[in-house]
Design brief:
Structural class: mainly alpha
Radius of gyration: 22 Å
CATH superfamily: DNAb Helicase, Chain A
Helix content: 55-70%
Largest sheet: none
Number of strands: 0
CATH class: Mainly Alpha
Oligomer: single chain
Number of helices: 6
Number of domains: 1
CATH architecture: Orthogonal Bundle
Order of helices and strands: HHHHHH
Strand content: under 5%
Distance between the termini: 72 Å
CATH topology: DNAb Helicase, Chain A
Amino acid sequence: MWTRENHPRSHSAGNSAHSEAAEKLDSEDFSLDSHRRIFLRITELMNASRAVDIVTLSNELARMKEIEAVGGVAYLASLTEGLPRRPVIEEYIRIVKDKSLLRKLMLICSTAIARADQARPLSMCWAPPKRN
């Protein structure tokens, strides 16, 4: 998220950081619904060439009736606490993508387990070789 210090209109680094993230991430890469919504609204603001900061983002989320669903303005403000002034966006993107991939793998495995549990007994699927 952009603060007044790293606002994309005042620093090209902020704009390029979002562009890089938007190229490599999709809202579905985020595990929490609130983070998906926040990412979507930031992307929409950036695509409309609008400023992105806590005020504009919270206003956009409120306009879409999503501000409470994401945890409110206080939660939005807390997301930037503890972040370095110039975050290493590549590392953050890698972390989100890695976690997204792990969640997809877990879904595939749990689906396979559920299907295997509902499958025919192995004795009906495979017959051992006959002995002479």
